[in-house]
Amino acid sequence: MKKPIFTGANVAIITPMTATGDVNYPEFKRFIDDQINRGIDSITICGTTGEGSTLTDKEHKDTIQFCVDYVNGRVPVIAGTGSNDTRYAVELSRFASKAGADGLLTVTPYYNKTTQNGLVKHFSTIADCSDTPIILYNVPSRTGVCISADTYYQLSKHPNVNGAKEASGDFSLLAEAMRLCGDDLNFWSGNDDMIVPLMAMGGKGVISVLANVMPDKAHEIAQLCLDGNYAQARELQIKYLDLINALFLEVNPIPVKMAAGFLGWDVGDLRLPLCAMTDAHVAQLKKAMIEAGLTLVK
């Protein structure tokens, strides 16, 4: 049985930027402290929500090192080190491992994609590069490739493959993967609207976008599931479903970063090609935030 890197709610954390477009480390400190103080169980740095794909190599590495150092063991830190270039993914993973990350989040290769056999080789090569456990990230809506149940099974035999962030939305795939892998692979929801059903099937928690604006509620939903209180967890997930959906009115992390700004965080602008939401979507997002009980300052 593989001990999960974390259980509960992990925030796929945004990356605050300054007015000149650099990483805003002072605001990042405040944001990280707020997340931990409000009950978040773990942090993923430089993932999709953190705009990792538009950070330079130096920024990516500096941000990982900053987060690991500043969190200082208060909660586990998962570093986003995925790439469609296996060699670069290995380089990033080795760096994050030496930096002290507790885990590595590695997405399926995008654009060039690959076969299932290629996925096994890609992830195995990354898992071989350090002792830091890795989390596979299956998000075919972004990458155009989906990890099959059999591929999950093959990868689950690698001692350094700890689990998977599942964002395929395919519960038939998930059920078959869980049947094949048993206790050799942990699963986390990659979608905030699927926390309860995935955890009811044996998942260990969620890697959450919602947690950026409601870390306490993301934690509560996941903890209720861990405690076996699925009825109350279901009520909370449904209660905040409009907000969860509003955070995906446009491509992530456009809405959630703007939402953090509406709450008073100095998050800065998005990096192109991401850009501000349409006025109609801004109005929908603000309405959902207010109805969820959040206080907007902008």
Task: Give an account of the 3D structure.
There is one protein chain. This protein has helices at 25-37, 57-71, 86-99, 116-128, 140-143, 149-156, 171-181, 195-200, 215-226, 230-239, 241-246, 254-262, 279-291, and strands at 8-12, 42-45, 77-80, 103-107, 134-138, 161-166, 186-189, 205-208. The chain starts with 7 loop residues before the first strand and ends in a 7-residue tail after the last helix. It is globular. The model has no long low-confidence stretch (mean pLDDT 97). The chain is built from 13 helices and 8 strands. Strands 1-2-3-4-5-6-7-8 form an 8-stranded parallel beta barrel, surrounded by 4 helices. Helix 4 links the parallel strand 4 (103-107) and strand 5. It has 298 residues and is an alpha/beta fold. Helix 2 (57-71) runs parallel beside helix 3 and helix 12 packs across helix 13 (279-291).
